[in-house]
């Protein structure tokens, strides 16, 4: 079955064609170069991008797959969670396509898509070995930090999640506190490569006794890094301090400036380890507690090599060498539509189809029936 | 223009919880020192319990100033049951409230009870020309809830004339200074004086 999928839940406009779980095409109109110029993501530009890019992106995905519209058997789309305005672009285009082609419409949860990225191989390559159930999946990105248990296809249970900042957000804000670039994950990883993670001791939020013990927190870590980093800030020139800025006006936050020999690499290494350790240890504990047969990583932070290595070590320590740790090819870690098509493929196998009345679901949960 | 008390005053008064730095009843800024994240959440909860539908709260402070912690407290006071995560990447999080979680839920006019908390985070935006894509203006005076905006300076020219402003500033040792003021003074946030009396009594 050939599925055309659209994904517009956040910053990327993406379309892909899958034949079964084989990727025939995967097109992402990313605006990261533009974002970097601004030192951050620019949502209006991104949303305008969704509207103007969506049709060309779909056409490119079809052309690269060597198909015309009539060759598609079903249309899949991300329904949520995400930004209402952005989701709406994808959902409306997908509805129109499915209606015009008289094909079924399959709505997909964005988080499920990230998990199913692990079923995909790169175009022209064999798909990876099929992940065995039950499994745990650590989904870590800029907006998400979730630990999921999957008993079978479509059966999810949320074991834990962040109580404040997402892991990718922690990396971005940590990078800003250290005066490193955007996006923060790769910037921290590069800086940390030359650093000693043990020179500084940063706190890990283990959160014992909260929920099942599988929740995460990175807000306190951010504050601790701020306090450490402040020791190495260049002294600020004195500024006249209006004791109270007039209402409606706001004092400016200055970007950090550091003394020449500030140990940025060591700080980055300590910070990275403090983010990675609870993620890896809790995932391995969950894997042992639930007797899983596979551990999956998903989301943009799955690209972090320190996380991959630490998770592999912890899973071996907790579960022995029999439980594989898998992560998707890099192209399927960040937001893309191939993963949405993969989730739709298995949903379609279960006979799931979405009605025309479907709308966007900005706070869509993963169905909890595991 | 009102001025905040000098810093010396904070350190002198920096004991007990939470410290009301200046307790003069007519002082337009409620100036507090919180000694821990738990206290910041408690201050937030007391604010949240007083908020009504249509209210707008702005949280101003740099990274690590305690904005998300205060937001979690405000959510608790409003009767939000789910986890309040930072909406930095998602821009907006909508949280439904539970009816019995807020004082106006039992006895208050139903139209007053905030049914939602709209938690906005403008951190990723670099200017106020970029707010239309997610309907920023529509969230500011919600007909069925309260709007809470982190990094409001990214939308400085787009803010309505009335709001509750909380400025947060780390003081070291896990302490935070919170300066809470109604803009313009009084109005729909006239209960700030009541909160000052309540906290002065508790300290």
UniProtKB/TrEMBL annotation, chain B:
PANTHER family: TRNA THREONYLCARBAMOYLADENOSINE BIOSYNTHESIS PROTEIN TSAE. It comes from uncultured Thermomicrobiales bacterium. InterPro entries: P-loop_NTPase, T6A_TsaE. Keywords: ATP-binding, Cytoplasm, Magnesium, Metal-binding, Nucleotide-binding, tRNA processing. GO terms for biological process: tRNA threonylcarbamoyladenosine modification. Gene3D superfamilies: P-loop containing nucleotide triphosphate hydrolases (3.40.50.300). This is tRNA threonylcarbamoyladenosine biosynthesis protein TsaE. Its main location: cytoplasm. Belongs to the TsaE family. The keyword Metal-binding applies.
């Amino acid at each position: 079955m050939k599925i055309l999928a659209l994904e517009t839940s956040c910053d990327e406009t993406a379309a892909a064609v899958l034949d079964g779980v084989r990727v025939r095409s995967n097109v992402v109109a990313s605006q990261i170069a533009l974002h970097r110029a601004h030192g951050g993501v620019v949502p209006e530009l991104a949303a305008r991008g969704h509207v103007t890019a969506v049709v060309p992106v779909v056409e490119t995905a079809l052309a690269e797959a060597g198909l015309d519209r009539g060759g598609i058997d079903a249309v899949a789309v991300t329904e949520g969670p995400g930004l209402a305005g952005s989701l709406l672009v994808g959902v409306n285009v997908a509805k129109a396509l499915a209606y015009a082609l008289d094909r079924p419409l399959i709505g997909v949860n964005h988080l499920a898509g990230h998990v199913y990225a692990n079923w995909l191989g790169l175009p022209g390559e064999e798909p990876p070995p099929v992940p065995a159930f039950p499994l745990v999946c650590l989904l870590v990105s800029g907006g998400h930090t979730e630990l999921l248990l999957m008993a079978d296809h479509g059966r999810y249970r949320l074991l834990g999640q962040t109580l404040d900042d997402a892991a990718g957000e922690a990396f971005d804000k940590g990078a800003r506190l250290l005066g490193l670039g955007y996006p923060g994950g790769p910037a921290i990883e590069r800086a940390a490569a030359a650093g000693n993670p043990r020179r500084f001791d940063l706190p890990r939020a283990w959160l014992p006794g909260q929920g099942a013990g599988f929740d995460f927190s990175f807000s306190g870590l951010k504050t601790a890094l701020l306090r450490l980093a402040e020791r190495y800030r260049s002294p600020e020139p004195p500024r006249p301090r209006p004791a109270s800025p007039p209402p409606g006006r706001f004092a400016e936050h200055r970007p950090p400036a550091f003394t020449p020999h500030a140990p940025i690499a060591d700080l980055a290494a300590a910070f990275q380890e403090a983010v990675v350790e609870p993620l890896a240890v809790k995932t391995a504990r969950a894997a042992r507690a639930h007797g899983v047969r596979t551990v999956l990583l998903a989301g943009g932070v799955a690209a972090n090599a320190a996380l991959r290595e630490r998770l592999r070590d912890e899973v071996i320590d907790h579960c022995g060498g029999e439980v594989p740790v898998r992560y998707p090819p890099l192209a399927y870690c960040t937001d893309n539509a191939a993963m949405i098509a993969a989730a739709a493929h298995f949903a379609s196998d279960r006979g799931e189809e979405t009605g025309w009345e479907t709308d966007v679901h900005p706070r869509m949960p993963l169905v909890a029936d595991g | 223009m009102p001025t905040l008390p000098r810093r010396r005053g904070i350190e002198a008064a920096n004991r007990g919880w939470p410290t009301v730095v200046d307790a003069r009843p007519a002082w337009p800024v409620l100036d507090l020192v919180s000694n821990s994240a738990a206290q910041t959440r408690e201050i937030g909860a007391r604010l949240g319990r007083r908020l009504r539908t249509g209210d707008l709260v702005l949280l101003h402070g740099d990274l690590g100033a305690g904005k998300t912690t205060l937001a979690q407290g405000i959510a608790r006071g409003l009767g939000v049951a789910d986890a309040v995560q930072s909406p930095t990447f998602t821009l907006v999080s909508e949280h439904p409230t539970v009816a019995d979680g807020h004082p106006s839920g039992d006895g208050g006019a139903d139209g007053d009870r905030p049914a939602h908390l709209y938690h906005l985070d403008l951190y990723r935006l670099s200017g106020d020309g970029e707010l239309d894509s997610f309907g920023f203006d529509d969230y500011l005076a919600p007909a069925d809830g309260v709007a809470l905006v982190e990094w409001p300076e990214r939308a400085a020219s787009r803010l309505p004339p009335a709001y509750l402003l909380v400025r947060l500033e780390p003081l070291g040792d896990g302490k935070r200074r919170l300066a809470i003021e109604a803009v313009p003074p009084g109005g729909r946030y006239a209960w700030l004086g009541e909160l000052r009396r309540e906290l002065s009594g508790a300290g």
